Amino acid sequence: MTEKISLIAGTANRPLAEEISTYLDVPLTPVEIKHFNDGETYAHIQKSVRGSIVFVIQPTSPPVNSHLMELLLIIDALKRASAKEITAVVPYYGYSRQDRKAQPREPISARLVANMIEKAGADRLVTFDLHADQIQGFFDIPVDNLEAHPILAEHILDLGIRDAIVVAPDVGGAKRARRLAQLLNTNLAIIDKRRPAHGKTEVLNIVGEVKGKNCILADDIIDTAGTISGAAKALKHKGAKDVYVCATHALFSGNAVEKLSIPEIKKVIITNSIFLEPQKRFSQLTVISLASILAESINTIFEGKAMGLVFDRLYHKVEEKRHP
Amino acid sequence: MTEKISLIAGTANRPLAEEISTYLDVPLTPVEIKHFNDGETYAHIQKSVRGSIVFVIQPTSPPVNSHLMELLLIIDALKRASAKEITAVVPYYGYSRQDRKAQPREPISARLVANMIEKAGADRLVTFDLHADQIQGFFDIPVDNLEAHPILAEHILDLGIRDAIVVAPDVGGAKRARRLAQLLNTNLAIIDKRRPAHGKTEVLNIVGEVKGKNCILADDIIDTAGTISGAAKALKHKGAKDVYVCATHALFSGNAVEKLSIPEIKKVIITNSIFLEPQKRFSQLTVISLASILAESINTIFEGKAMGLVFDRLYHKVEEKRHP
Amino acid sequence: MTEKISLIAGTANRPLAEEISTYLDVPLTPVEIKHFNDGETYAHIQKSVRGSIVFVIQPTSPPVNSHLMELLLIIDALKRASAKEITAVVPYYGYSRQDRKAQPREPISARLVANMIEKAGADRLVTFDLHADQIQGFFDIPVDNLEAHPILAEHILDLGIRDAIVVAPDVGGAKRARRLAQLLNTNLAIIDKRRPAHGKTEVLNIVGEVKGKNCILADDIIDTAGTISGAAKALKHKGAKDVYVCATHALFSGNAVEKLSIPEIKKVIITNSIFLEPQKRFSQLTVISLASILAESINTIFEGKAMGLVFDRLYHKVEEKRHP
Amino acid sequence: MTEKISLIAGTANRPLAEEISTYLDVPLTPVEIKHFNDGETYAHIQKSVRGSIVFVIQPTSPPVNSHLMELLLIIDALKRASAKEITAVVPYYGYSRQDRKAQPREPISARLVANMIEKAGADRLVTFDLHADQIQGFFDIPVDNLEAHPILAEHILDLGIRDAIVVAPDVGGAKRARRLAQLLNTNLAIIDKRRPAHGKTEVLNIVGEVKGKNCILADDIIDTAGTISGAAKALKHKGAKDVYVCATHALFSGNAVEKLSIPEIKKVIITNSIFLEPQKRFSQLTVISLASILAESINTIFEGKAMGLVFDRLYHKVEEKRHP
Amino acid sequence: MTEKISLIAGTANRPLAEEISTYLDVPLTPVEIKHFNDGETYAHIQKSVRGSIVFVIQPTSPPVNSHLMELLLIIDALKRASAKEITAVVPYYGYSRQDRKAQPREPISARLVANMIEKAGADRLVTFDLHADQIQGFFDIPVDNLEAHPILAEHILDLGIRDAIVVAPDVGGAKRARRLAQLLNTNLAIIDKRRPAHGKTEVLNIVGEVKGKNCILADDIIDTAGTISGAAKALKHKGAKDVYVCATHALFSGNAVEKLSIPEIKKVIITNSIFLEPQKRFSQLTVISLASILAESINTIFEGKAMGLVFDRLYHKVEEKRHP
Amino acid sequence: MTEKISLIAGTANRPLAEEISTYLDVPLTPVEIKHFNDGETYAHIQKSVRGSIVFVIQPTSPPVNSHLMELLLIIDALKRASAKEITAVVPYYGYSRQDRKAQPREPISARLVANMIEKAGADRLVTFDLHADQIQGFFDIPVDNLEAHPILAEHILDLGIRDAIVVAPDVGGAKRARRLAQLLNTNLAIIDKRRPAHGKTEVLNIVGEVKGKNCILADDIIDTAGTISGAAKALKHKGAKDVYVCATHALFSGNAVEKLSIPEIKKVIITNSIFLEPQKRFSQLTVISLASILAESINTIFEGKAMGLVFDRLYHKVEEKRHP
């Protein structure tokens, strides 16, 4: 019995799954996913996976509860169908911002989700840029928390921006922004939202010098784009030259598209960790595909090689672009 | 420290929770439940539950994935807030019909849900008329699977129907229907859907004699009402007098209301295990409240008494109506 | 290191295990099983199973507690001896009828047994015709619940019975009987045991038309044969022609043999899921061996192929016999 | 809600349970235990135990597999019936001698049993003189491993034996025998069974001086009595005066009674941890009841007091008898 | 049976435990803790805790491995001695900085520790200022992650510092520092350590304006004090007036005391979450006791009240000091 | 993908790990282990182990808490780095003497350690001469409890000692000593430490005849050597000729070396299960390496062969030496 690989796509991001399938030259195992009239999700794997090493590709993007349930049902079906090893490939991990009790009597939803994925039967998680690195520790199974920074940095370097500075849109994102700043070899500024006194309006206090600089506003997730859009305006107000926006996960909820399509923002660079409907695309937007990194990571896991090899190559490319 | 009781309502059926609260004279503990712009559910208990015996009232009715997630988040929040004991009161248990692998490579969704509820931190489940009794065995925690039959029977007996026969709309529901037949002291018929040959139309074969009888079509769940509506027509076709429909859980998906509002059906009797929107109510419909049984069951659990006492009273009432 | 297969037989049905061993051309790994003077069971695997894919063949037939304990001890020994994967092959799953709380304060014994098998260290269960399909959901490990219907149907079709109808001996078995009826392409009748009034004798009410028909009474388990024997008489009384009895699991407890050896029953067709002592065999009895299906299933699991292949062939054979 | 206590007796030793019930003035909660025709055990608690602190009294004595299953089924029923806390009171713990892998590919049956008891839902174990103290460590739940030595010592001191020496019947029992020797303040001898050369007969080598001494042969379990009976003869042969036999658990398997009723043995002192059928009693036998210690231990647990208090009193009594 | 409280102190911070004991007027339950000659830790609870609500006070401060093992052994002993509920009160949580995989093939030590505490048998954790809030999510049991900020803020406000600014010593601590800045109602600056080019010396880049300001360098843990000491010098260099240092957990490893006793630092304010040996105290140091908050929190848990009450009072005091 | 083997050495006994590595011709996977200034242990595997069969060599010898934590951190890192199977090779198992509750309210530390090793992610334990065989049952994973007796016996036979007798230094070690006596084909004596009356000095009572015999004092662990040294003197006092000391695990705590370097002891024979610092070696001491047995055992596990083969060879060699 030789090892077999199976790729399974949920409905959350089939185009990404298909890109991965093409890259790996491994067909997607057919799976029937439907919603009954009463809204119950149903998942049925159509081909034998007995003894297979299976990768289930499903970001838990909106509608998050349905996409999560779908993921769990697929895992349950695979487990009961005697799959040998099940890796949940979840490029965007929903509920990741509910990662601690910010006030008493809140759930820690990201841990609840981790428990559900483990309990359903996953043997490993592959994901991208978790909102907090510590979420890896919500799991007892191995987590490969891949990093989109190198491919984002590569793209930004290609733009040839001079006098650049990376700006964190809030204090909580300072560490993440510094990571990108390191790859781009730029300085860092941080926006600190503060309310000068009770009842007064919140002000965006920019910690660091941005005047005359090309600002790269870097975040992990763009949700309603309120923070980013406000930050871009504040930067311009403080004398920044161009403002670029860069993030791994593009939720684009509410009227995010409108908020991002403003003159203060020159470009918005995101990845396809979440499937983006055509109507949410706009002229300033660039979408970079994670398919090749994911495909190589899947192959690395299947062949039992070091994940570092995949990333060393990426870092090397960034390094080269930085010092051509 | 004396024992404290807390009642918490999710959003799935607040009117039922409020009825229970009134019956028990215990206020609902305030809980903030909202959906963020990206669809993530958020649950925040507003008052201390430290050391409390808590009952969370939330059927996992449509939209089932969201209602389930809400239930789990509330349980997680309660557990982390040091509640002493958490009982999930789930009058309708979603995914209960996915209770076995009907074909290879299907999930057993009802077990997955059971695992999720247990893992989230529930100490007990209270539910009504599980689609299969065996679902109790999907749990390691105690399950109180209450029975709506006695209050349904009580109502039917009040209607004073003569020459009645209980009819199961399909073979899988025969056992359940017989239970009601026993309470009403009537005979039983069963409808057996069959396809005479490959490619031919399905026929409804009625096993048992219904001619001239008042038929009580009894099921546990009415979903799209296709089966029930077809059955009612078939019974009429075979010479039945009046056809009554009776079920515990009214999902009323798709155009169920239309299918039930037909002349062949005289009355439809259901419970409020699932919240029914006003626009889904119609003239033949009677909704019987489970609030008093649930309230008494909750009280019984809180006080550590025998659940049998609640039901003995109900059976006694049925008995009395049967032989006044 | 190439994968190794090991077959281990408990004492419950060695002839079946030997048939399987012959079919697969894999010798049974010797195991010493004995009972000490005080009744404790002792199991000792005699050959190394380190790194092996092991199949333990042991129905939990009477004496069920001892056969179950033996199974668990063998699994524990295998686990501690570093077997790579352990599949419990339990053609008859004892305690399967205690699958729910029929009244308050009963155990759910079938779930308890499931927990014991999982906790002892089994990685998979292979079984036949579980009393309730939902018992699959009592396990978190994969369960292959094989179906004896096709080989039973094949045999019945060979008998060339005309004007046949399948009869369920009670309402609870209606669904199972319908499954056989579908394979044989016959109609269905159901026997509904009822007590007309408190204190009165129970009557067997036959739902459906059996007059002049050759009845195939179909059940999953024949225990004391009281129900079956009564049903056969009732059918004859209602004008049935010949009565055949067909079941997967033959416990034949008490004086079952006597009750089945009556003129009202023409033939009894069972499988060897349970070892039948020679003194329990009688002239009308036909025992069909499950060895080939089990052997093919074991091979399918070992080779990581689809179980469907085994069954597609069986269904095809039935189809062919039906329309020769 | 005040705490309630419930006592439940399995069938293994009802007289002991009744003695405890009388001592505590707490009635036994009625429980129906029966064996179906096919040998399946059935347990049904007859009165509500919701919220109760329950003690289940059931040694896992022969037939050990059935008594163990009965215990597990009772625990499962109690758990599902919402008992608040379940203590398994197992005066004799079957399978305790299978406590390690003595050779490769053996099970560790005593751990398997521990896992089963825990998994079924027990919150605590109360037992007597485990064959190995380490079995406490097979559990994650609290184990109260009570000691019969003080009440045995008390009885032996009452006999007023002079020039006494405690003798261990084999090397494995040396530590246990020394414990009794300490309580009685006597010396210790040990019997070392050895085979002088391959193929030669085993000889009983007595390590220590027994000539002219009254020997108290002390063991934890008497099974077939082969070892004890041989030891008594060997001691006599070496010039011992009277030989007394003393043990906690009397299995008396095979022809143990015959082997113990020999002139070389003056008295046999045991406890009622295992129910002894009347036909197994003989003139030299004295049975000491554990009911009072068990009753006091149960009360101590229920009231949350220190178990040490129960035993301090016992040790004090022994001390007083030793130095009157 | 009324609820009993027990306080148990490990050896890591007995003075703190004694303060708590005095505050609550509950004596410490005596416990023998020793190290055998070979270094094994031994813990023996000296008084019955059967049925008690127990609080074990033990920060896992250096020597962390021994203090952690001691904590686990105490919890194991309590669990096996039938304590009713065990709360681990761990004011300083060792290994909290190893909270994620910063590079491949690292452990997540803080999760490993969480697993160990849960598995040993703790029912709840009470701790202070976890290095990452997400560590709460490493546990399935409730975690009360208390906050030292209000009592630190209260003390700082008492110092009457004008023109204050809170400074985070590195980007990772920005969020934590902002929390203190909010309580004190000051601005925020952040120190960003950067290496201008490969091989060049690291520079401390101060993001924000500190000239002429009184700087409060705020961190959660002071370990070797290298970062803090360098930051103080850099702030002075940039024209800061006085520099204050403030942290919850004072490890003071290596020559931390020396590094903090420099003229650039005016005052160092810490808590007694970790026991500080007398020789590590120096003139600029102020140690604020957590005993009263811990005592009130323990009481709150024991009495099942809301933890918020304890903290509302503290916030109110800070508010009052801010606007007297 | 073919199976890969990885050997990892903690810091507890690197020389032994290197010997094994040489024997197997498999290099040690580099791992960085360090202690931060505050005493926290850090472990970082330096090369990919994805998909590898890993053996971690680390006795939990003094400092036991640190060596244990190191082992657990390595296992956690391996698990999260997707190692396929992790075997903890722990030649000396620390805390093994705390294997039961000897008095109330003690922990069972050896079980706590077992839980920690399992929970961290080990799939198997390989160890030597556990203090109690029952510790195997503290694990649910397979335990290979290897035996040093045959290589010790081989060495002793080489010494050509005549008139030998094996002596157990206390009653608890009688069984272990008898095992060696069987291999050497000698008689057995046992030393029974007793206190003749309360307050009197303890006396060493020798059970068995040692006069004129060459005594081999056999134990599993030599800790402070107090017992052994006292026993040697007592034996000499009773007329023994030469006294040899033999043990598997040499902790040599306190002034053990001094106590063993006395004229009453002719030779001390131990293994290298624990790394012995050069200053603890003395003229009478012989250290026998376990490297070859461990290497062969590791190979046997990796290749899925029977462990018995390794030991059969060893027993055969002993046999041959005994009857040359």
Instruction: Assign the CATH architecture of the largest domain in chain A.
Output: 3-Layer(aba) Sandwich
Measured by DSSP, the beta-strand proportion of chain A falls in: 25-35%
Name the quaternary structure: homohexamer
Q: What is the H-and-E element order of chain A?
A: EHEEEHEHEEHEHEEEHEHEEHH
The chain pair forming the largest interface, with residue counts per chain, is: C-D, 52 and 51 residues
Mean pLDDT of chain A: 94
How many strand segments of chain A?
Answer: 14
Ranges of chain A where pLDDT stays below 50 over 5 or more residues in a row are none
Termini Cα gap of chain A: 48 Å
Helical percent range of chain A? 25-40%
- Level-1 CATH class name of the largest domain in chain A: Alpha Beta
Output the strand order for the largest sheet of chain A.
10-9-8-11-12-13-14
| Count of helical stretches of chain A | 9
- Looking at the structure, the CATH topology of the largest domain in chain A is Rossmann fold
Question: Could you say which overall geometry of chain A the principal axes of the C-alpha atoms support?
Answer: globular
Helix/strand structural class of chain A: alpha/beta
Provide the number of structural domains of chain A: 2
User: Cα-atom Rg of chain A, whole angstroms?
Assistant: 21 Å
Largest sheet of chain A: 7 strands, mixed
